[in-house]
Design a protein that fits this description.
Helices cover 44% and strands 17% of the residues. By secondary structure, it is an alpha/beta fold.
Length: 342
């Protein structure tokens, strides 16, 4: 397996998962993400160098991509610019990484003698801000009145923000390469993913970020009123789905799946703050600011399609997952400090 962006949070957990199962794993990453180097060191210590590593950039290093893809039977494409706010500040770089970079990887797959399985990590942001849906405001959260099970793949795509556009364009390219070239591709429109080895920042990886910021006494900003709701998915459940999609590629190929914790695993920001304070003793003092462009008031993934097609559903409930996350943060504080306090 080749994992682009494999030194990031999801990638390093995926690499560990597949190495445990005896797969040959190659990580391709430019190491631009905070904590990526530490993740590689962790993986090397756990598996004694069993994973191969290629330092490369999906924007520029096409010959390197071509060679790496030609040697594998599955590509997990995670390399991305992942923040809406960064995309607004620098839309060109966002496009080059997410849209052009994905096209470069797809082209390497298309040119391979035997095109490998291609799994793409997309995002719920392809559905836009969902303001056209009926959203009710309650004491601690927003609620989608007409969608108690969440948003399904039938929801109209409505790219909002440069990030939504770049990821959405890549999403459509991946699906079309299955249709036009017969490549076995699968798109996962992921909701919020969390777990160990996540060096979260303000605009991506928010569960980990709030726990880390609380312990390090870093400034925390609450954008909007804090009633924004997301379903959250533990990274181990997501990676189990990646493996299942590979094992059942005949059923999965050509599809786009909404993937998240679902209606039973949701938090608003206010509710998560309360959980950190009451259940984990982490105070979350914060300042307030205006809601950010393109931010969804509520997104919950309807997992019906992926459940019926691949027989998958989340196994880690939200309470257990947050306990595990906060334990990882507390147990790795010295390593975390080296990333955030340098």
């Amino acid at each position: 397996m080749l994992i682009t962006g494999g030194a990031g949070f999801i990638g390093i957990n995926a690499a560990a998962h597949f190495l445990k199962r005896g797969w040959r794993v190659t990580i391709l990453d430019n190491l631009s993400r905070k904590g990526a180097g530490l993740n590689l060191l962790w993986l090397s210590g756990e598996f004694r160098g069993k994973a191969s590593f290629i330092k490369a950039d999906i924007r520029y290093d096409q010959p390197v991509l071509d060679r790496a893809v030609a040697r594998t039977d599955a590509v997990l494409h995670l390399a991305a610019q992942v923040a809406v706010t960064t995309s607004i500040t620098d839309p060109r770089t966002d496009f080059e990484i997410n849209a052009l970079g994905t096209l470069n990887v797809l082209e390497a797959v298309r040119k391979a003698k035997t095109p490998p399985i291609f799994l793409y990590s997309s995002t719920n942001k392809v559905y836009g801000d969902l303001e056209a849906l009926k959203i009710h405001e309650k004491k601690t959260r927003y609620v989608l009145k007409d969608f108690p099970d969440g948003v399904s793949e039938r929801q109209q795509l409505d790219f909002h923000s440069p990030y939504g556009c770049s990821k959405g364009a890549a999403d459509k390219y991946v699906r079309d390469y299955a249709r036009i070239y017969g490549i076995p591709t699968v798109v996962f429109r992921q909701s919020c993913v969390y777990g160990p080895n996540q060096f979260g920042v303000e605009d991506q990886g928010w569960l980990a970020w709030f726990a880390i910021a609380s312990l390090l006494k870093k400034p925390i900003t609450l954008y909007g009123n804090g009633k924004q709701v997301r379903d959250v998915l533990h990274v181990s459940d997501l990676i189990a789905l990646y493996e299942r999609a590979i094992d059942r590629i005949k059923q999965a190929r050509g599809n786009a799946f909404n993937v998240g914790g679902g209606a039973s695993n949701t938090f608003s920001l206010l509710e998560f703050f309360d959980t950190l304070e009451t259940a984990h003793g982490l105070l979350v003092p914060h300042t307030k600011a205006s809601i950010r462009p393109g931010d969804q008031k509520v997104f919950i993934s309807d997992n019906t399609k992926v459940a019926s097609t691949l027989g998958w559903k989340p196994q880690v409930n939200i309470r257990e997952g947050v306990v595990a996350l906060t334990s990882w943060v507390k147990n790795n504080l010295s390593k975390i400090k080296s990333v955030y306090l340098r």
